[in-house]
Write a structure and sequence with these properties.
heterodimer, A: mainly beta, 8 strands, B: alpha+beta, 13 strands
Chain lengths: 135, 389
């Protein structure tokens, strides 16, 4: 069955990130000037505005900074998934990202839980980084 | 500031609703034309006097709404010398007040008209829903976060985690706001509710229930501003705009620096400093209430209570009619109306309170009002301080 949920519209700026996801690697931009990690990909470092940014594979580990259990879907494509968990993951390297917590028990999710990345190959071209609670 | 050019509000109007829908199936341009005419009539002015137009909305995009100020000016048959289509979400109209104030003081225009119209309820659509996942949204939209409620829900959860805030405390806000709506014949939802009703209403995005969320209605309105000098010859009681400030902290929730602290900390303190007022001087507070948690976070960020103290602050119906802290006296976005960009209505209600026109919901002797807008996903905040004299 065709994948009906919204897919990222990949551009040249984001392509390295999504290509890495396809290889099941999580990469972030690492500023060579100030040392800050950044997400999402940018032309300039958000902290110091240097353009000396290098892609770097990161741990894929973090904690749940916050979350919501969605009982009303974000459009018809997500209807079959409810209740599902959207979370803000604070990566070990600093940046936060929005993602899903993959779990059979949405109500068990809590802020502060340690998580690690997993990749959901939703199409041939796109693998979405999602997270599971570390057991 | 040049003497006599102090900015004042001289006319306000909002579109009458029936069951949350605009009467007669009007479109957003018709709604704005009628509201503008009413607000100008109240001010004792005509369309020929208007030389500044500030407008925002989510109709006709892409299309006639893409260059919104031009379409509204053309539709109204005016050719203003100030055009401002600032669109920063529901707080846009507070930003318009700020920009109009600056333009009036500088002599850039003489009469500024701010307009808004929405038929989202009649059309059964939420304007934020169809955003395509390009550029910055490609990293969030694929995960199915319902926008905007999901982002506010995550802020609420974080507040509960950090400070022990409870769903019952959030419910207090919905209950108190409904009590104000019961006193306002124009409000959409006027039947009393209890905290148990809020907690028993369907969960939308945890921890926010249906009754923690604003209504989905049509609506529209207009605000007319001019200078104090010009207002001397007009019939309406001028309401001075003493302070204003706008800011942003992020656009997407993944980039919000701290989920329990909004830009209201900055916009609020700057606006109050400009107006020369402190918290104790403010008699009535109108705060954008897209969700109960929006109010809680804003009260803290504005400094009406300390960080983390919002839950205790709103307890025991403190913000209800007769309580110590009159808040959202028209019934708010939670119970009066919410056409998608509610900021127009905090301004209108603040002006009516300061004029003493509010009948059973009038806050006695209201001299200073704070009107605060929040846009996006807690992304933009704009604070205005209005006074009676």
């Amino acid at each position: 069955m065709a994948y009906e949920k919204p897919l990222p519209v990949v551009n040249e700026e984001s392509r390295p990130f999504w290509d890495a996801c396809k290889r099941h690697e999580l990469i972030l931009q690492h500023c060579q000037a100030c040392g800050a990690y950044g997400f999402y990909p940018r032309m300039l470092c958000k902290a110091c505005h240097s353009d000396k940014l290098a892609w770097e594979r990161v741990s894929g580990e973090g904690t749940i900074y916050s979350y919501t259990v969605c009982h009303r879907p974000a459009g018809p494509a997500f209807k079959a998934e409810v209740p599902y968990v959207v979370a803000l993951i604070e990566l070990r390297e600093g940046p936060r990202m929005v993602s899903n917590i993959v779990t059979p028990d949405a109500e068990s999710v809590r802020i502060g839980q340690a998580v690690r990345v997993t990749f959901d190959d939703v199409t041939e071209d796109i693998s979405l980084p999602k997270f599971v609670v570390k057991g | 500031m040049t003497k006599g050019r102090e900015p004042v509000i001289v006319g306000v109007a909002d579109a009458p609703l029936e069951n949350g829908m605009v009467r007669g199936g009007l479109n957003p341009l018709q709604i704005q034309a009628l509201a503008a005419k009413s607000a100008l009539e109240e001010a004792g002015l005509g369309f020929g006097d208007v030389d500044g137009l500030l407008t925002a909305g989510s109709w006709g995009i892409p299309g006639s709404g893409s260059m919104m100020a031009l379409t509204v000016a053309e539709y109204l048959g005016i050719q203003p010398v100030l055009l401002d289509g600032t669109q920063i979400g529901g707080s846009s109209f507070e930003a318009h007040v700020a920009h109009a104030a600056l333009a009036l003081q500088a002599g850039y225009c003489e009469v500024a008209l701010i307009t808004y119209g929405s038929t989202q309820r009649s059309e059964r659509q939420r304007s934020l829903a169809g955003r395509g996942p390009g550029l910055t949204l490609q990293y969030e939209t694929p995960y199915g976060l319902p926008t905007p409620v999901g982002a506010y829900a995550m802020a609420a959860h974080r507040h509960m985690y950090e400070y022990g805030t409870t769903p019952e405390q959030l419910a207090e806000i919905a209950v108190a706001t409904r009590k104000w709506a019961a006193l306002n014949p124009a409000a959409t939802m006027r039947d009393p509710i209890t905290a148990d009703d809020v907690l028993a209403s369907p969960m939308i995005a945890s921890p926010l229930h249906l009754l923690d969320c604003c209504l989905v209605t049509d609506g529209g309105g207009a605000v007319v501003m001019t200078t104090a000098e010009r207002a001397r010859d007009l019939p309406a009681r001028p309401i001075p705009v003493r302070g204003y400030s706008e800011t942003t902290t992020h656009a997407t929730i993944g980039s919000m620096p701290d989920l329990t602290l909004t830009g209201a900390q900055r916009s609020g303190s700057r606006a109050m400093q400009m107006a020369g007022v402190t918290h104790g001087d403010i008699d009535v507070v109108e705060i954008y209430d897209s969700f109960t948690v929006t109010v809680l976070l804003t009260l803290e960020a504005l400094g009406f209570c300390g960080r983390g103290e919002g839950g205790a602050f709103v307890s025991d119906q403190r913000t209800a009619p007769g309580g110590a802290f009159p808040l959202n006296t028209n019934g708010g976005g939670l119970s009066y109306a919410h056409p998608g960009m509610y900021g127009m209505f905090v301004l209108i209600e603040a002006v009516r309170q300061l004029r003493g026109e509010c009948g059973p919901r009038q806050v006695p002797d209201a001299k200073v009002a704070l009107a605060h807008g929040t846009g996006g996903v807690l992304s933009s905040t704009v604070t205005c301080i209005l006074t009676r004299d």
